[in-house]
Design brief:
Blueprint lengths: L10 E7 L3 E2 L5 E11 L20 E8 L8 H16 L6 E7 L3 E5 L6 E2 L2 H12 L9 H12 L6 E8 L8 H11 L4 E7 L5 H10 L4 E4 L5 H13 L3 E9 L5 E9 L3 E2 L5 E2 L4 E9 L2 E10 L8 E12 L5 E14 L3 H5 L3 H24 L3 H18 L2 H7 L3 E5 L4 E4 L5 H9 L10
Helix pairs in contact: 1-2, 1-6, 3-4, 8-9, 9-10
Length: 446
């Protein structure tokens, strides 16, 4: 059993990477904003640290395990699902509030029951594992009901961090896509959630949409035997989160328009449409919960035209935690995005390496998604072109993991030119792994 002491609160910093120089008439400004939190959520060396005494009101976790009938085919899938959830329970810090939910076409409280959360200690962890041993498979799949129950349970605790872990092995066949989207809309901003698909009978876009809406991670566990290790890692990460509901606040001056804001590392995540207004010319973009980590964001703004030699502040980026009363706690870190107009062609045409790298990574993710969709639709030429471009981008950016996944779907003739042939036979797990992990990026070498 892993023991994790409660980490200290992290400190945030913001670094901006850009080429601020624009040619005469230039209006588009791109910047990569690196946000780093340090000093909190560090798990290294904490495995042998003693558990803190007394309750810990900092976190609540809901574990949602698929118990639909398909989990019995083969029977090892249900057994591995139970074992993985038990391993995650073992990783809970003392004092963390938690619940286990069994998901079919309805959501049932497996432990502790009664519409409440348990508080983790040696006794409740053991009771939860005993309850898990009694789980059996049967019924359909309606993931929205699982998420709504998790939300009700998590909201009953007065805690800063609310997190879900969801495991499914099948398609969401017992509720409409609209019902699932309504559940995600209702839960967004209330808790974060990591989602995992086990085996190969689930729908990639369903699982990734859950993680995207709830600002968590998504992945495939093709072999159910790998679930316990994956669940343990997920719970360790969740236990390292220390600040919830952090927002990237972007202020722009009069006449300046935000074209987009997206997370570009460790995964590509579009945030533009999630903006909430935060006062005159300022908007908040949600980033979820933070521990000891670093993420990169691409901010693109359109500024008013200006004359040569002029300069302006194009955007100010800060980190805040919005409060229920409409105010915000400022986390004390900010970065400035500038625009300077010059007739120096060398300066104004130079592309910042960070911006160039992440523009390529975003294009890589899109090329994979479009290529796989075209392949499923039977458009061989279109799929070959898109996946060839993906191979070229993966090689150029040093994204070796994605390059390996692509090589299981296409035969690479020339990576540098993106010349490929679609493989005649592709293992379903390989194609699903590529699709699920298509948005994972590599950090630029600074």
């Amino acid at each position: 059993m892993a023991n994790f002491s409660k980490p200290s609160v992290p400190r945030f910093s913001v670094d901006v990477y850009q080429n601020e120089y624009l040619p005469e008439g230039g209006r588009e400004v791109d910047a990569i904003v690196t946000v780093t939190s340090t000093g909190g959520g560090t798990l290294a060396g904490a495995a042998t640290a003693p558990r803190p005494a007394g309750p810990d009101a900092g976190a609540a976790v809901a574990l949602m395990v698929d118990c639909s009938g398909s989990m019995d085919y083969p029977p090892t899938k249900m057994r591995n699902g139970r074992d993985a959830t038990a391993a995650a329970v073992d990783t809970l810090r003392d004092g963390v509030h938690f619940a286990v939910i069994g998901g079919t076409h309805v959501a049932k409280e497996v432990y502790p029951g009664g519409g409440r959360l348990a508080v983790a200690d040696a006794g409740t962890r053991e009771q939860a594992k005993q309850a898990l041993r009694r789980l059996s498979a049967g019924g359909g799949t309606a993931i929205g009901t699982w998420l709504r129950l998790a939300d009700r349970l998590l909201s009953s605790a007065d805690v800063a961090i609310r997190h879900g872990i969801l495991l499914t092995d099948g398609r969401n066949e017992h509720e409409s896509a609209e019902d699932l989207k309504a559940a995600l809309d209702a839960c967004a901003g209330r808790f974060t959630c990591d989602a995992r698909g086990v085996g190969t009978d689930w729908e990639v876009k369903e699982v990734t949409s859950i993680a995207s809406a709830l600002l968590g991670s998504a992945d495939i566990v093709a072999d159910p035997a790998g679930l316990a290790a994956d669940f343990t890692r997920m719970m360790e990460t969740a236990m390292g989160k220390e600040v919830a509901d952090v927002a990237l606040r972007v202020w722009t001056p009069v006449g300046t328009t935000i074209r987009f804001v997206k997370q570009v590392a460790p995964t590509v995540e579009e945030l533009t449409g999630r903006r909430t207004e935060a006062g005159p010319r300022a908007g908040d973009y949600p980033t979820g919960s933070w521990g000891d980590e670093s993420r990169d964001y691409h901010v693109c703004v359109e500024v008013p035209a200006a004359g040569l030699g002029q300069e302006m502040l194009a955007a100010r980026v800060s980190l805040v935690v919005p409060q229920p009363d409409g105010s915000a706690q400022n986390l004390g870190a900010q970065g400035l995005v500038r625009a300077v107009w010059t007739d120096d062609m060398t300066a104004s045409t130079s592309i910042n390496p960070q911006v160039a790298h992440y523009t390529g990574q975003a294009e890589l993710a899109q090329a994979i998604q479009e290529g796989l969709d075209l392949r499923k639709a039977g458009d061989i030429d279109g799929a070959t072109a898109k996946l060839g471009r993906a191979v070229q981008l993966a090689g150029a950016s040093g994204n070796a993991d994605t390059a390996k996944l692509l090589a299981k779907v296409v035969d690479v003739v020339d990576a540098a030119t993106g010349t490929v042939r679609l493989k005649a036979k592709v293992a379903e797990a390989d194609e699903m792994t590529l699709e699920t992990r298509s948005t994972k990026t590599v950090r630029v070498k600074k």
